[in-house]
């Protein structure tokens, strides 16, 4: 009897020591009338193979459990939610030897179907779009400058090549020697005859 009690206590201690830590920083984002995204973080160092989410309406009428294993995901989309309804969620980590304790409870409320985004999300989206536009304009200006510089260098090289080729193709009568700039040696001899 004593030995079986010690084995039982050892198993309980083993299970509690090897349970993964509870998720932290649980948050709800991308709220819609019928969906929301839950995200969380897990402390480093433990092997996490999945997660479990409990979702419950505040009025207690409905409860749903979502369990995913063989994933390293740290977020989950909740579907089929009711508009303008309060929900509570908790997340658990799934490790090799069991599940963690549940995270702190997080409350959120879905939107009306006529609402697209909450006002703070809309402001963030506008800032993000403005920032993206600035980056795109800067990149395009840099590309335009590179192309203009290339075209200028190409024109200079092309002009140099064309003037070099004109000198090579001059008729022999136009060629001069360095000693006589008026037609070369043969022409000066012909002029004295």
TrEMBL record:
Keyword Glycoprotein: yes
Annotated InterPro entries: FN3_dom, FN3_sf, FNDC_type_III_4/5, Ig-like_fold
Entry annotated with the keyword tRNA processing: no
Family annotation (CDD domains): FN3
Protein name listed in UniProt: Fibronectin type III domain containing 4a
Residues spanning the membrane: 133-150
Localization: Membrane; Secreted
Biased composition regions of type Basic and acidic residues, renumbered to the chain: 161-182
Region (Disordered): 161-193
Signal peptide extent: 1-17
Pfam families named in the record: fn3
GO-annotated cellular components: extracellular region; plasma membrane
PANTHER family referenced in this protein's UniProt entry, alphabetically: FIBRONECTIN TYPE III DOMAIN-CONTAINING PROTEIN, FIBRONECTIN TYPE III DOMAIN-CONTAINING PROTEIN 4
């Amino acid at each position: 009897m004593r030995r079986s009690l010690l084995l039982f206590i050892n198993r309980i201690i083993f299970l509690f020591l090897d349970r993964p830590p509870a998720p932290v920083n649980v948050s709800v984002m991308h709220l819609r009338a019928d969906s929301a995204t839950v995200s969380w973080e897990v402390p480093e160092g433990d092997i996490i193979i999945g997660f479990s989410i409990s979702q419950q309406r505040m009025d207690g009428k409905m409860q749903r459990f979502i369990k995913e294993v063989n994933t390293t995901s740290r977020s989950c989309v909740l579907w089929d939610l009711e508009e303008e309804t309060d929900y509570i969620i908790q997340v658990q980590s799934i490790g090799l030897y069991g599940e963690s304790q549940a995270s702190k409870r997080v409350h959120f409320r879905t939107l009306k179907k006529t609402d697209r985004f909450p006002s703070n999300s809309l402001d963030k989206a506008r800032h993000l779009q403005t920032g993206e536009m600035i980056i795109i304009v800067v990149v395009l200006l840099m590309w335009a400058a590179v192309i203009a510089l290339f075209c200028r260098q190409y024109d200079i090289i092309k002009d140099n090549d064309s003037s070099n080729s004109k000198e090579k193709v001059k008729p022999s009568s136009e060629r001069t020697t360095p000693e006589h700039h008026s037609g070369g040696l043969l022409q000066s001899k012909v002029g004295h005859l």
